[in-house]
Design goal:
The chain is α+β, with helices and mostly antiparallel strands and about 240 residues long. The protein is built from eight helices and eleven strands. The chain has a six-stranded antiparallel beta sheet. A three-stranded antiparallel beta sheet has the order 1-3-2. It starts with 8 loop residues before the first helix and ends in an 8-residue tail after the last strand.
């Protein structure tokens, strides 16, 4: 039986185009807004919104008078944009998958409660995964989600699916967040799971992500192998 997709139409088109882009070479021409309108049976504005999101994520280049084209994949993620690990790896031509190390419902700790803005000891979903690209370990990820996310997350096949896509299908759409980035030395457990040596450098990103109403949904710590992952930063130089 076909599962109903409750996402807005432009999000459904965006997801379909993300999958299509993953199999295309940089510079490949993409359908125009008019062609997307005819293909998906939506308004031109809906098609345009889908393409605009892809452009904001850096997946496509929109050239006035010429059309839309697959963008060159950057070496690293832009620090001011969060793309799911699944889409990020696919964008760079790598095959992503995950090993679920832990998935449970338990009371929140004091720091988790503070991160999510909930009372202490409230039920949360704890998800711990090893993230791989082309079979090589890239990141060790520990995620805590509001208890209201339990049903879709506990039932999902998380080895190859994007967590954010799973939440989106359940009507939980993540919009914005904050993160801090630091360096750390790999612990013995980090080293074992990431196939590196204790003490080797890791890039550690801690982020809290909210939905469109400002409700904090997710708090995640990602511990990346520094030789397999990086962040690009764009900035402006302030005048003295």
């Amino acid at each position: 039986m076909r599962t109903l997709d409750h996402r807005p139409q432009y999000r459904q088109i965006e997801a379909a185009l993300r999958r299509r882009i993953a199999s295309l070479q940089p510079g490949a021409r993409l359908p125009s807004d008019t062609q997307l309108r005819e293909e998906f049976g939506v308004s031109r504005m809906t098609a345009r919104n889908a393409m605009q999101q892809l452009a904001e994520d850096g997946l496509i280049e929109r050239q006035p008078g010429r059309g839309s084209f697959v963008a060159e994949a950057p070496a690293h993620r832009q620090a001011n944009r969060l793309m799911t690990f699944t889409h990020e790896m696919m964008r760079t031509g790598r095959s992503p998958n995950s090993v679920v190390l832990e998935r449970s419902i338990r009371p929140s700790t004091a720091p988790e409660s503070a991160d999510l803005g909930i009372p202490p000891r409230q039920p949360v979903v704890h998800l711990r995964r090893l993230r791989l690209a082309d079979g090589l370990p890239v990141a060790l990820e520990s995620t805590v989600l509001l208890g209201s996310c339990a049903a879709p997350v506990m039932a999902a096949e998380l080895d190859r699916e994007s967590l954010h896509e799973i939440l989106r299908r359940a009507g939980i759409v993540l919009r914005r967040g904050t993160s801090t980035i630091a360096a750390a030395a790999a612990s013995s457990e980090d080293a074992r799971l990431l196939e590196t040596r204790p003490g080797d450098p890791l890039l550690v990103e801690r982020r809290v992500i909210a939905d469109g109403h400002g409700r904090r949904i997710e708090a995640t710590e990602s511990r990346y192998r520094a030789d397999r992952y990086g962040l690009d930063v764009r900035f402006e130089v302030e005048s003295p």
